Amino acid sequence: MKLHFTGDVNEVLEGLEILSADLGIKIADEGYVIEVMNRKGPLIVENKNGKGQIFFENKIHFFRGLGLWLQHFEEEKEFTKQEVPQFQTSGAMIDVSRNAVLTVDGIKMLLRKMAIMGLNMVMVYTEDTYEVPELPYFGYMRGRYREDEIRACDDYAYTLGIEMVPCIQTLAHLKEALKWGYANDMKDTDDILLAGEPKTYEFLRKLIEAAISPYRTKRIHIGMDEALQLGRGKYIEQNGYQNRFEIMNGHLKEVLSITEEYELQPMIWSDMYFRLASVNGNYYDFDSAMLEKVKQSIPNVQMVYWDYYHAEASFYEGMLNTHKQIAADPIFAGGLWTWNGISPNYSRAFRNSEAALQACKKTGIKEVLATMWGDNGGETPIQTALPGLQLFAEHTYHQEVTREHLEERFYCCTGFRLDDFLLLNSFDEVPGVMKDNLYSSNPSKFLLWQDLLMGLFDENIKGLPIAEHYRSLLEELQRTKEHNPGMENLFCFYEQLAKVLSLKAEWGIGIKSAYDSGDKEEAAHFLAKLEVLKAETDRLRKAHRDVWFSINKPFGWEVLDIRYGGLLTRMETAQYRMQSWIDGGVTKLEELEESRLRYDGPEQFPDSVTLGRGETYNRIVSAGGF
Questions:
Q1: Cys staple from 365: which of 86, 117, 311, 360, with CB 3.0 to 4.6 Å?
Q2: Which of 266, 57, 87, 89 minimizes the C-alpha distance to 162?
Q3: Strand partners for 219
């Protein structure tokens, strides 16, 4: 569609050119006229008497408004639509520290989608995946960003009305950064810095200098979450037992002395202060009297309350109000549940985010963001986060959001069908898992990676129609590619995953039954199936690889190649072992002699709600050391 913009267009013209292809428009003098007016007040888009109008306050509102105008122009021709932003800042945090490091083009793709949605802030979470010139081993072979790459993204974001904020770690979650010899003198534990050590603060000065250099903003997220072993490693050897609250506070003050020099506006994750105010070290059972001590002594820093786990708005309201008593203007960080395995958990992400965002509106929170972690190798493609980002966007501009509204806006902003994306939820919400999968069972991950002969999770799924579930899902997924141009690679990958799981999920149960009954003819039947499964698994590896390289740097893919390679090699060994038994070369297979037990993970839930939750690759593939 050809459009001609008049009025206050200078500020948004460059962004318009960036978004024109995504929006399907062309800027032309002979195009349909849209008058643009930059002024205080709500976002208003209208079309009357053969002319469009967009009234906006901030640059980001214009880009959302243009998408909104295009959507309604197609449907209604004459209309007036108004939206009142519920939050000052609404955005996303993208994890690039769990092997999957987005390319610059990958970040730009997300920025374009976010701009059309109306999201105006992004953090790229970099533990060690950014270049620090004086520290050659910091982020070595991890896909770290060069300064010019981050600056290019920051420029792009600024053009689209999006603030990019550096997001780093200055206490814990630094295992990859601290594993090299240069860090020996400044480690408390494997992933926590040694508080009070002068070399630690020399190190952090370099990290902060490098982190802020490519950015316009003066804001910085300095992390400090989940330092659960703070003061319990080398620190206690050197200093004896010290009050952990005092250690934390002293460290934070030292880091803030660095950020003050650069006139930065720092923020931290809030959980450690709540944990230190708890007898048991838990985030949510803090002691009010101890928390008052936190309030009196905590330095001047903005708190970020992260919580993805609760489905009740009242819980979030209580925590948000408590945060507001401790520090002014806390930020809320929800989660899109992209990190539980190889597929997203949309049900939990949507249900918990809906509750949290309603609580944020009720309690007057000004800033919200959606986290997109990539735990345990970044197996879930980041593109699957788009529906969750749309949910945050619609709650940013509306008090209530219906599913019909979300579907319409998602198609308008991305060109994709929400229902097709939501099919991916079925990879983990299988028979035996509670509705909405609120305890984040991840059968698609453990059934993919578990060993065929060891079958650590076979007892968990025994008697359930898991293979049939994945066969039905495969049929539904086969239509998705043609409906979502530009996401063919993503849906090809998930279609192939459903095919592999339909073949593999119950294979171990079947071969164990054949072995126990001494039925070598039935075992030979399963052996023949294994050749097909090997071929389909290798196709899955290649489909996953295609998705990865379409948006990520190559670093980190080697880990998934090794996982797939291990899976394929174990299939070959399973063939070898079974053939030996069938031919009489061996009289028994010790792997199949073992009685199967339910997987006994560290987090216990009733059998009726989860088949296994949150286990990482190393605990899925073997009961041995890894």
A1: 360
A2: 89
A3: 265
Is 0.90 topped by the overall pTM?
Answer: yes
Strands of the sheet with 43-48, listed across from one edge = 26-27, 2-7, 32-38, 51-56, 43-48, 79-83
Can you list the pairs that 589-598 forms with residues at least 24 positions away whose Cβ atoms lie under 8 Å?
589/453, 589/515, 591/453, 591/454, 592/453, 592/511, 592/512, 592/515, 592/516, 596/455, 596/458, 596/459, 596/462, 596/512, 597/459, 598/459, 598/460
Q: Which fold has domain 89-415?
A: TIM Barrel (3.20.20)
Report the CATH architecture of 425-601+612-621.
Up-down Bundle (1.20)
Which residues, listed in sequence order, are joined to residue 368 by a DSSP beta bridge?
90, 332
CA neighbours within 13 Å on the CB side: how many for 106?
20
- Nearest Cα neighbor of 397 from 67, 153, 109, 70 is 67
| Residue-wise DSSP of 503-553 | HHTTHHHHHHHHHHTT-HHHHHHHHHHHHHHHHHHHHHHHHHHHHHHHHB-
Tens-digit pLDDT profile for residues 579-593: 999 999 999 999 999
DSSP state of 144: P
Label residue 616 by pLDDT band (50, 70, 90).
Answer: very high
